[in-house]
Amino acid sequence: MVSEHRPTRRGVLKAAGGLSAAMALGAGGVVTSASAAHAAGDGFGLRIVDRNENDARMWYYRFATDAIGWDPGVNVLLPDGYHGSGRRYPVLYLFHGGGLDQDFITFDRWGVRAWTAGKPIIVVMPDGGHAGWYSNPVSSNTGPRNWETFHITQLLPWIDANFRTYAEYDGRAVAGFSMGGFGALKYAAKYYGHFASVSSHSGPASLRRDAGLVVHWANVTSAAADLAGGTVYGAPLWDEARVSADNPVERLGSYRNKRVFLVAGTSPDPVNWADWVNETQVLAGQREFRGLLGGAGIPHEWYEEPGGHVFRDYMFRRDLDGIIARLRKA
């Protein structure tokens, strides 16, 4: 996930994503351009401490924020023809998975430029912590790690103020892989009016099943990788209200009138314990979620694909076409 040093897009992909084996248990107006916002200064609790806008499409920012105890980064991938077009665009917030090698440049390394070439959409790829779980944790022993505040309260309005977006429900989608797929499902439910489309690629959809294995997984991984012994949901006793607020299967009504896209693998590697634990739990939870959505009459698109806990770029490309079809047109 996030590294403390200044990132480079020339890095070599070290893992397929998700949690590593060692962690397995564990509406306002818009400004016409980013330069206008830079001239005006910072806002929304964010202060730019580094940026690179030399690339025609991929713009990079690093922010100082009281929500996070270090300076998280964000990549903003602009559509072809953005500069000088004067058009507004829908936005996809794309979340990375968990693991020490995953961060906001993960999808850039994997090929997001090629996947989005010619597509009329802005893609925002923010840091989410090594094991931040797209949450404000119950406890942290290493300073603030309030990823939910950073993403929803600070970054989202900053994007709408600094790029030509549609700052409205039908102008935004959220998607992610693994931990990021859970974050997408969580944010789409908790912040109903923010996102018209939600996609989870091998992301957990049920927190309490199997004696709360995913909650324990979130607590253990966050304690080890991000919070120096703190936890997302509390230990040994959980914050039950917080678990319920974040649990997709307990928030069914919040997925009405949204496009819902789900992918899980059916054949994780039985020799790779991390892969088997991750995707076995993901598949079971997504099946539970799908059954409840169907029982509630909530439309959803789902796929079960061969393989384990990996990001399937061909499924993302299919998903992206559906996202663009659902959102307001550029």
UniProtKB/TrEMBL annotation:
Alphabetical UniProt keywords: Acyltransferase, Signal, Transferase
UniProt lists the family membership as follows: Belongs to the mycobacterial A85 antigen family.
Q: What is this protein called?
A: Acyl-CoA:diacylglycerol acyltransferase
* Transmembrane residue ranges: none
Q: Which residues form the signal peptide?
A: 1-39
Instruction: Identify the domain of life.
Output: Bacteria
Q: Which organism is it from?
A: Wenjunlia vitaminophila
Question: Which of the seven top EC classes does this enzyme belong to?
Answer: transferase
Catalyzed reactions per annotation: 2 alpha,alpha'-trehalose 6-mycolate = alpha,alpha'-trehalose 6,6'-bismycolate + alpha,alpha-trehalose; an acyl-CoA + a 1,2-diacyl-sn-glycerol = a triacyl-sn-glycerol + CoA
Under which EC number(s) is this enzyme classified? 2.3.1.122, 2.3.1.20
Recorded GO terms, molecular function?
Answer: diacylglycerol O-acyltransferase activity; trehalose O-mycolyltransferase activity
